[in-house]
Amino acid sequence: MAKTHILARSPSHLTPAWAQHIVSQQQADVQVSSVQILGVEVGTTTRVRIAVEHNGEENLARQWFVKLPSLAWRARLITALPRLLHTEVRFYNEIARHIPLNLPACLAAHSRFGQGSTLVLANVSELSSTAGRPDDALSFLQASQVITELARFHARFWQHPQLDSSYPWLAGPVRRLEDALGTALAVPLMKRGLHLAEKLIPAELHAPALRYAKQRRKIMAFLNDAPKTLTHHDCHAGNLFWQENKVGFLDWQLVRLGEGVSDVAYFLATALMPETRRQHEQNLLKLYANTLGEHGVPGISSENLMLRYRAHCCYAFEAMLITLAVGGMMNLDSNLELIRRSTAAVTELDAFSVLP
To answer: Across the 356 residues of the chain, what is the mean pLDDT of every consecutive 10-residue run?
Structure first.
């Protein structure tokens, strides 16, 4: 059956006939009777929650989460060239089964150049799970679980000899284009982000932030000059879900090869209130290093880990300001709160001082 039937450009294309193509690949004799749109959110992608009525067995999901290209023109412009949704489709088709993390079940994933990408996941709510929000403030116990899972994930792919050859697209032309685009737009977007954030960013942080933007290519090289593993690269609370007390991970559009502590820095700078991060970040970094060691990654220096952690917090700060500057990529109140948290992190850690 042609996979092109799965591709959809807008929520209006999510019809019973469209859903039938997907269900037929799961259970050939099942019939879809209706599709109801439950909600639509527009950010870096258009995220649609739908209810699908069919006569299949209970284990065939009836609550679906569909990701389509963004309907917001600015977000679509930023994400179209680096093909971020296409990257997530490839992640679910090629890598997800090897990931030692809790992920939503993938029902269909297809991408075709010039025609777009469509990703269909089982909605985590059907598994009695709760999806996080970007501005959720996690507790120390929740953060400990996330850090433990990240360490297991990073250890699984730590300096894996076949990662480059098995998945060349992780560092291929599309990823290089994304990096080049980020560098080209860094200064104007940083200036706009600082202007829009107003009093959330102290005046003394403006100059180092702009120096960061002007030297972004050199700084990215510095941040990537470390043992490589597979990283999520967008690990904030809104990209997590909780099934009872077990955490799961969503939104793999930015997955790439990188330094593992980059995920730790992004997470701690955005998902914890500043006072919680301040109180527990040393213990959480120690937990990360110890868990890596338990899973076969020896010799993690606590001093170097802290240095690299501080440096990577600068990227979390940049990412939140760029999100604000582009607009339409995240709920505004959530975006401003994550700017407040990441600003506190880079200020208290004097993070810009450790960059070249």
So the answer is: 80 96 92 97 93 93 95 79 88 96 96 90 89 97 98 96 84 80 93 96 97 96 95 98 93 95 98 98 98 95 97 98 93 97 98 96
* 157 in Cβ contact with 167 (< 8 Å): no
Q: What are phi and psi of 236, to 5 degrees?
A: -110, 175
Same-domain check for residues 243 and 183 = yes
Q: Are 223 and 312 in contact (CB under 8 A)?
A: yes
As a whole number of angstroms, the distance between CA 234 and CA 82 comes to: 15
> Can you read off the two tokens belonging to residue 282?
């040393």
CA–chain centroid gap for 81, Å, is 17
In terms of pTM, does the model score above 0.70? yes
Instruction: Tell which of 108, 127, 146 closes a domain.
Output: 127
**Where among 127, 157, 184 does a domain terminate?**
127
Q: CA 347, CA 354: separation in Å to the nearest integer?
A: 12
Residues 6+ apart with CB under 8 A from 324: 193, 196, 197, 332, 335, 336, 339
SS3 129: strand
Please answer whether residues 231 and 255 qualify as being in contact, where contact means their C-beta atoms are separated by less than 8 angstroms. yes
CA dihedral for 173, 356, 301, 151, sign (positive or negative)? negative
CA–CA dist 65, 57 (Å, integer): 19
Distance CA 168, CA 87 (A): 12
Both 276 and 319 in one domain: the answer is yes
C-alpha span between 151 and 44 (Å, rounded) = 27
Whole domain around residue 64: which residue ranges?
Answer: 3-127
Helix and strand numbers, DSSP H then E, in the chain? 12, 10
Strand partners, 258: 229
- What does the pLDDT read at residue 80? 72
- Per-residue pLDDT of 29-49, as tens digits, reads 999 999 999 999 998 899 999
- CA-CA distance, 279 to 263, in Å (whole number)? 19
What is the tally of structural domains in the chain? 2
